[in-house]
């Protein structure tokens, strides 16, 4: 692009400090212009090292930027992102894109009607090795099943253990989108949540049906004291068993890759991407169906 995108950041928590702010400030196509957070002192602490302005409201932020990145709970993200899209601002969204399916649909509609660019930070999908392996799986074909295991102690200790929305919504909303997205991308569109169960210990287990006939399962928890945590996705079929390999791409590197795509989308006027708001809406539908199944 001839000029850097002016990007406002909504949120000033650990993920904003670790990934969003340095990524936006360091990328050649973006400039971290303004920061808003519910706690002004947190916004000031985040903004100061990058020379970004601290604004007093989301409306003030929207008046000064071309795009908005979000690092806030889903219920906060959805309302501000809808307003941003309606004002023609491009959006970088966290998962899940909303706290309810209705809000996710409203957000997707606002983005589509406004014709703005949107991307969802599905971290592993912006790691080069993931896309390489997905391409290999699709070229081979013949996969009939798969499994995902996402086992962490993130709610017990560490920077995200004090996050109220994560404790309230649990692994279904927080790490679920990552697992569901990879199973869906590898085996075909998830068409049904066959079973979903949450144990008293906070362990979620799922079975999915996929377009084309494959089935898969997933096990998620954020309350097992594992160090390091486990995040594994595998598929099996006529070509044997394949597990996704992790080549060490960090969250920061994935975010830089996301920004590469985002800037290119804005520059070219492209509004579709494998990880755009419509992907986020699809994952929200899976979350909603899983929650209903677990409560039945």
Compact overview of the structure:
This is Oxidoreductase domain-containing protein. The chain is of the alpha/beta class and 296 residues long.
Description:
The protein has a six-stranded parallel sheet with strand order 3-2-1-4-5-6, with helices on both faces. The protein has a six-stranded mixed sheet with strand order 8-9-10-7-11-12. The protein is 43% helix and 24% strand. A hairpin with a 4-residue loop joins strand 9 and strand 10 (215-221). The protein folds into two domains: 5-123 and 251-276, NAD(P)-binding Rossmann-like Domain (Rossmann fold, 3-Layer(aba) Sandwich); 128-246, Dihydrodipicolinate Reductase, domain 2, CATH 3.30.360. Helix 1 (14-26) packs across helix 9. It contains ten helices and twelve strands. It has helices at residues 14-26, 40-47, 58-62, 74-86, 101-114, 128-140, 164-174, 176-187, 251-268, 277-295; strands at 5-10, 30-36, 53-54, 67-70, 90-93, 118-120, 143-151, 190-198, 204-210, 215-221, 230-237, 240-243. By secondary structure, the chain is α/β, with parallel strands linked by helices. The model has no long low-confidence stretch (mean pLDDT 96). InterPro entries: Gfo/Idh/MocA-like_OxRdtase_N (IPR000683), Gfo/Idh/MocA_oxidrdct_glycsds (IPR050463), NAD(P)-bd_dom_sf (IPR036291). Keywords: Oxidoreductase.
């Amino acid at each position: 692009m001839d000029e850097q995108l002016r990007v406002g950041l909504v949120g000033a928590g650990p993920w904003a400090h670790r990934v969003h702010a340095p990524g936006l400030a360091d990328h050649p196509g973006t400039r971290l212009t303004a920061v808003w957070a519910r706690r002004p002192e947190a916004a000031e602490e985040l903004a100061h090292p990058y020379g970004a302005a601290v604004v007093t409201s989301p409306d003030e932020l929207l008046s000064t930027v071309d795009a908005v990145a979000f690092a806030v709970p889903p219920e906060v993200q959805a309302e501000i992102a809808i307003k941003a899209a309606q004002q023609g601002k491009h959006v970088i969204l966290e998962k899940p894109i909303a706290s309810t399916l209705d809000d996710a649909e409203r957000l997707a509609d606002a983005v589509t009607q406004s014709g703005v660019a949107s991307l969802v930070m599905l971290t592993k999908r912006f790691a080069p090795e993931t896309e390489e392996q997905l391409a290999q799986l699709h070229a081979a074909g013949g996969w009939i099943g798969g499994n995902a295991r996402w086992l962490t102690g993130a709610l017990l200790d560490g920077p995200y253990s004090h996050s109220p929305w994560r404790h309230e919504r649990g692994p279904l909303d927080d790490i679920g989108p990552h697992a569901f997205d990879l199973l869906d991308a590898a085996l075909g569109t998830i068409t049904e949540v066959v079973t979903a169960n949450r144990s008293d210990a906070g362990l979620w287990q799922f079975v999915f049906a996929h377009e084309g006939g494959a089935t898969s399962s997933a096990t998620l928890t954020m309350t097992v004291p594992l160090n390091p945590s486990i995040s594994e996705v595998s598929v099996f079929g006529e070509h044997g068993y394949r597990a996704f390999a992790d080549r060490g791409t960090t969250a920061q590197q994935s975010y830089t890759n996301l920004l590469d795509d985002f800037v290119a989308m804005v520059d070219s006027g492209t509004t579709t991407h494998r990880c755009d708001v419509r992907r986020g809406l699809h994952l929200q539908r899976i979350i909603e169906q899983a929650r209903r199944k677990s409560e039945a």
